[in-house]
Specification:
With 540 residues, this protein is α/β, with parallel strands linked by helices. The protein contains 17 helices and 24 strands. The strands form four sheets. An eight-stranded parallel sheet has the order 8-15-16-17-18-19-20-21. A six-stranded mixed sheet has the order 3-2-7-22-23-24, with no helix packed on it. Helix 2 packs across helix 7, helix 7 packs across helix 8 and helix 13 crosses helix 15. The relative contact order is 0.14.
């Protein structure tokens, strides 16, 4: 008789398998589930070496899949950058004091780098003059929470050879004061990448690997057992392989190759790498390009202009921007699709989503595939027109549910309350049979998936802004988006997403029964234990 490596007993285990939706016990051996049933039925799997966890009537669910996030970028910043989100910096004065203190202690020439700035909740953007005074002559770059906009000071502009007369880079913008023509400090899209590349220039693979270990503990602490690394860099791919080889990888990684890194996707295609290349720990999901931008940062592409107060230097009648020429991106998407890679394109506004769907339509016309699983990432403002196109083309709505909670207030302010009717329309899409997933886009938003699940069910942002109650889903539907559909997006539904015999033993044990608590409590859910491959990787 083979004995299990791990047994969970005396719990309420939601399998998400309709054939057997709940059991009290589970046994795992060799990283897989070998038995499900009652405590008495599973008792025979317990041997002297079996780890037995008494769930004490706690709820357990399949490990969650965050199907679009940026742990590699987060890892590269966690050691040396300053986190300046509202939890750490509550006002503009606090931000300027932090900069002053940090730069006084820094060596001459050292950069001050910050990330996750939310100017709407911390008093607005500092001026260039304020940044210059606070930075004490050091170069400064702060990345807005959306990852699409940054703030630079004069020393940073000088180091990157940017003056008031420097032309905007393709698909980017250096903002200027319309009255004086001087730089404001705000840099958008590819203009921000100039500074990002300079600050990250000296990062090493080991820096990224060490940061990933810290970041992954945060994911595990919320019951996340798998993630898809959006826009994965080659440096991160190397780090994941080192972590896998040295026993430091405790969470499953789906690699979405970055179209921002010159030659990366093309090299993978030449090497014959397709979706599914790898193993259960590190696996290629597909290829990604980011043609659309940020609603909270007022750069995402819409047909109608933004509302609310414009930022100094923002173009008049602003409808956002797109980051690729159509014919160029069609060729890239079609090549990757023909090579057997799932293609992911970022579309946020209705104009941006249509642009992505145009690319998919062209690729499918050139190379028809029934089960292609192409994904519109974020897929926020999905009006009936875009809904019909998603359904017709069989494209997945890879929804940025984290935006609802963390950035919902900014969406309502920048697009208007009426636009919330079709912002993240999960109820309608599910009823229409469109595949809908959920993700954080961390570190744009917080890693915690339970706040996003809260927003999907309650249709409210963190600040209580209403986001269209008619598009609410049930908590079980939301869980399925983060487990079953998350696995489906990576072509892994045969091994994860539900708790069934033969599937991976990836389980989250929760501190309360998320399926029965009042919906207002969903955001308070915490993982007590997170299990990956039948091994405990996190205990609270």
């Amino acid at each position: 008789m083979i004995h299990a490596d791990l047994v969970l007993q005396s719990g309420r285990i939601a399998t998400l398998d309709p054939r057997r939706p709940e059991v009290s016990a589970l046994a795992a051996w060799g990283g897989r589930i070998v038995a499900l049933g009652t405590d008495d039925e599973i008792a025979r799997w317990i041997g002297r070496q079996t780890e037995v966890i008494d769930l004490a009537d706690r709820r357990a669910v399949p490990g969650l899949v965050d199907s679009h996030c940026h742990p590699d970028g987060h890892a590269a910043r966690i050691a040396n950058w300053h986190e300046v989100d509202p939890a750490h910096v509550g006002s503009r004065d606090e931000l300027l004091k932090l900069i002053d203190k940090a730069t006084r202690a820094a060596r001459p020439g050292a950069w001050f780098a910050g990330y996750r700035l939310n100017e709407r909740r911390s008093g607005g953007y500092p001026s260039l003059a304020e940044l210059d005074r606070a930075a004490n002559g050091r170069p400064l770059f702060i990345l807005r929470t959306d990852g699409h906009i940054g703030l630079a000071n004069s020393a940073a502009f000088k180091l990157c050879d940017v003056t008031r007369d420097t032309p905007d880079p393709p698909f980017g913008r250096f903002d200027h004061d319309p009255a004086t023509g001087e730089l404001t400090g705000l840099v958008r899209e590819t203009a921000a990448h100039l500074f990002l590349e300079e600050v990250h220039r000296h990062d090493t693979v080991e820096d990224v690997a060490a940061g990933l270990e810290r970041v992954f503990q945060q994911y595990l602490s919320h019951g996340i057992t798998s993630l898809h690394n959006s826009l994965t860099s080659s440096r991160a791919i190397q780090a994941y392989q080192i972590m896998r080889a040295t026993g430091r990888l405790h969470l499953r990684v789906g690699v979405i190759l970055s179209g921002r890194e010159r030659g990366l996707i093309e090299s993978a295609i030449r090497a014959g790498i397709r979706t599914g290349f790898g193993d259960e720990w590190v696996r290629v999901v597909g290829a990604e390009w980011c043609p659309d931008c940020s609603t909270s940062g007022r750069t995402a592409a819409y047909y109608e202009p933004y509302v609310g107060a414009p930022v100094l230097g923002e173009p008049p009648d602003n409808t956002g921007m797109l980051l690729y020429e159509a014919e160029d991106l069609k060729a890239r998407v079609t090549e990757a699709h023909k090579a057997g890679l799932i293609v992911c394109l970022d579309g946020v506004g209705d104009r941006g989503i249509d642009f992505c769907l145009d690319m998919f339509e062209a690729a499918l016309a050139a190379h028809p595939v029934a089960d292609h699983r192409m994904r519109v990432e974020h897929c926020c403002y999905v009006t009936p027109k875009q809904q019909a196109r998603l359904k017709k083309l069989g494209v997945i709505d890879s929804s940025a549910t984290g935006f609802m909670y963390d950035l919902g207030e900014a969406y309502a302010a920048n697009r208007g309350a009426a636009a919330m009717r079709w912002m993240w329309p999960h109820r309608t899409l599910l009823d229409e049979g469109v595949v809908v997933a959920g993700h954080s886009d961390a570190a744009v938003c917080q890693i915690n998936p339970w706040v996003a699940l809260y927003a999907m069910v309650n249709r409210k942002s963190e600040t209580g802004v209403a986001l269209g109650a008619e598009e609410a889903v049930t908590i079980e539907e939301a869980l399925r988006c983060y487990a079953i559909t998350g696995a489906y997006l990576g072509r892994e539904e045969a091994i994860k997403g539900t708790l069934e015999i033969g599937k991976l033993a990836d389980v989250a044990v929760l501190d309360r029964d998320v399926l029965s608590i009042p919906s207002e409590e969903i955001r308070e859910v915490r993982a007590d234990v997170t299990i990956v491959g039948g091994a405990v990787k996190y205990r609270r």
